[in-house]
Each structure stands twice: as structure tokens, then as C-alpha cells.
């Protein structure tokens, strides 16, 4: 119906300007009871979380973060292990690590040991994996034999190789004397001692890299290698053009784990060279400075802090920049 009079028009406009009342929430005993049940459910969820996660969080705080913070404090002290008193020295322990000749030697040995063991383990592991990837008789036994050293105790491995490298009673010395040569003094010469522990560490971790590379090779589709063979690509061309690019994630994973493992290698170094004669990597230096003849707990704490920061930086750089160049299928 059309509104023609002025009074009718004003009445319609007033009706349109009148606000619509908002719906009022339900109130009363039912709503209060619903709120109480919701609060009890929330409290039960928080209580369950605290009961399940609380012990783990407490253990992590007690055995990881508290020692880490305490170690930061100890690194600023001139403190002998077991002494009742300690003198604050600020950053003097860090300055000594980066400026002294012994500190420079620790970094040199650490870089040589880490680089040689990581590259040696990964290159030899890849070659072994390429052989194990073929259809050869006794392949399962060969895989077990290659991987077995990795699960052996580092102490046992070090003791066995000490007898092998012994210049007088070792197998290596007997073999050299059979050809009219004398065995070098592996445990006295610092350069030969470092070479000796590198050989042993590569032998122990070779199986780990081989098994991981073998899993990566077996994940490559056979269609690609068969098509390359039909196009005339030989094994070497297939390795560099197909297999290695597709093994990018495997190489990235192994580079991260092997670098972290090599920088924390201790048991073989401690057993084969107890005094760190040319084999004092950064983690071995922590032990020698704190529990060896020096008893310098404050200086050892400073080295531990630096090692933590180095490992953290290496992992962050690899995850931030190197992983970008890895192509996942």
C-alpha cells in the first residue's frame, strides 16, 4: 500500500529508525551450570597437561638448562676443579682460547679431524653403497659386515686398533717388517697420531654412511636409470647426472649428522691417545683441561660454551642456507 500523507511518511521513517533490540543471552540456573562444567573441563585438561609434561619439563630444566646456565657462569671464573674458592676473570678464558698457541692448535686439529672424517666417511660410504646396490651374491652378509663397526663400542674399537697400530706387536708392524720396512711410531708422532685416529673413526662410521646412501639409491626410480642406459649413458654419467642430484637430501642429512658427530668424537681419541698427543680436538680439550693434569674447570667451561655456540651456528647455517639448494622429490 502506498503512503501518500505526510503523517504516514513520518510514521514509516520513525519505524525504520527504531533500533532492533539485541537478543539477550540466556540466563538462569542452566547457564550458570553450563559455565561451571566448562571451567571444570578446562581445569581437567590443564591438570592432565601438567601431570604428563611436568616431569619431562622438570628433568629438562634440571639436567640441560640449569647446567648450561651454570656453565656460562663458571666460564667467567679462574677455578681449579675441586677448589673452594674461585676468582672472577670476566672473558679472560675466552680470550685465551682464541689467542693462545694451544687454543690455535685445538682449532687446527678440530678442523682437520672433522673435515677428514666427514669427507672420508661420506665418499667411501657412497662408493660402498654403489657396490651394495648391485645384484651380487652375499649382499646381505656384506651389508651386515659393513654396518657392524658403527654399532660397536668406541672403547672396544679403539683397543682393537691399538693392537693393530702397535709398532712392535701389531699386525701392521708385522706386515711392514715382512717387506723390510719399519713401522712408524704412530703413538709418539703427533701428525701420525692424528692420522691414526682419523683412519679408525672413518672405518667406524663408514657403515652408517653406506647404509643411508644405499637407502637413497634404492629410492631412485629404476625407470630413470633404464631410460639413461637406453640413451647410451654409462654408469659414471648416470652417477653424476641422475643419482647424485637425486641424492641431495641424503647428502644434506649426512653432512649435518656427520659434522655434529665428528665434532663430538671423544671415546676413540681418549682410548688411543690418552694425553691428547696431537689429537686434542675441542671436545677432547674440554676433558683434558678439566679432568686431566690442568684441572682448569673455568677454562674448560669456556671451551664448552664455545663448542655449544659453534654446533648451534653450524646447524642453523645448514638448515637456513644449505637446505635451500636441496631438491626434494
UniProtKB/TrEMBL annotation:
Any GO CC annotation of this UniProt entry: plasma membrane
- Which SUPFAM superfamilies does the UniProt record give? MetI-like
Which residue intervals make up region (Disordered)? 1-37
Keyword line: Cell membrane, Membrane, Transmembrane, Transmembrane helix, Transport
Query: What Gene Ontology terms for biological process does this UniProt record contain?
Result: transmembrane transport
Q: Name one Pfam family in it.
A: BPD_transp_1
Q: What topology does the record note for this protein and the membrane?
A: Multi-pass membrane protein
Q: Where found, per UniProt?
A: Cell membrane
Name the record gives this protein? Glycerol-3-phosphate ABC transporter permease
Q: What is the lineage of its organism?
A: Bacteria, Bacillati, Actinomycetota, Actinomycetes, Micrococcales
Amino acid at each position: 500500500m502506498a503512503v501518500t500523507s505526510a503523517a504516514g511518511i513520518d510514521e514509516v521513517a520513525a519505524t525504520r529508525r527504531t533500533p532492533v533490540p539485541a537478543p539477550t543471552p540466556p540466563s538462569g540456573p542452566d547457564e550458570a551450570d553450563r559455565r561451571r562444567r566448562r571451567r571444570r573441563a578446562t581445569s581437567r585438561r590443564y591438570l592432565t597437561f601438567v601431570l604428563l609434561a611436568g616431569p619431562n619439563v622438570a628433568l629438562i630444566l634440571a639436567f640441560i638448562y640449569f647446567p648450561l646456565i651454570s656453565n656460562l657462569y663458571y666460564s667467567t671464573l679462574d677455578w681449579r676443579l675441586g677448589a673452594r674458592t674461585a676468582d672472577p676473570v670476566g672473558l679472560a678464558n675466552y680470550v685465551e682460547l682464541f689467542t693462545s698457541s694451544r687454543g690455535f692448535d685445538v682449532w687446527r686439529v678440530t678442523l682437520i679431524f672433522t673435515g677428514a672424517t666427514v669427507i672420508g666417511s661420506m665418499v667411501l660410504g657412497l662408493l660402498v653403497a654403489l657396490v651394495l646396490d648391485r645384484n651380487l651374491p652375499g649382499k646381505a652378509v656384506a651389508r651386515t659386515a659393513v654396518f657392524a663397526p658403527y654399532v660397536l663400542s668406541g672403547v672396544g674399537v679403539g683397543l682393537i686398533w691399538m693392537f693393530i697400530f702397535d709398532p712392535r706387536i701389531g699386525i701392521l708392524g708385522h706386515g711392514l717388517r715382512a717387506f723390510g720396512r719399519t713401522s712408524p711410531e704412530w703413538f709418539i708422532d703427533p701428525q701420525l697420531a692424528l692420522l691414526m685416529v682419523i683412519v679408525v673413526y672413518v672405518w667406524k662410521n663408514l657403515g652408517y654412511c653406506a647404509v643411508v646412501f644405499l637407502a637413497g639409491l634404492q629410492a631412485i626410480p629404476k625407470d630413470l636409470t633404464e631410460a639413461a642406459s637406453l640413451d647410451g649413458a654409462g654408469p659414471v654419467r648416470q652417477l653424476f647426472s641422475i643419482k647424485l642430484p637425486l641424492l641431495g637430501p641424503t647428502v644434506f642429512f649426512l653432512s649435518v649428522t656427520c659434522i655434529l658427530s665428528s665434532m663430538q668424537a671423544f671415546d676413540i681419541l681418549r682410548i688411543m691417545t690418552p694425553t691428547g698427543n696431537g689429537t686434542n680436538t675441542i671436545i677432547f680439550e674440554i676433558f683434558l683441561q678439566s679432568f686431566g693434569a690442568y684441572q682448569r674447570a673455568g677454562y674448560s667451561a669456556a671451551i664448552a660454551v664455545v663448542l655449544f655456540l659453534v654446533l648451534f651456528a653450524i646447524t642453523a647455517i645448514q638448515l637456513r642456507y644449505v637446505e635451500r639448494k636441496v631438491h626434494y622429490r
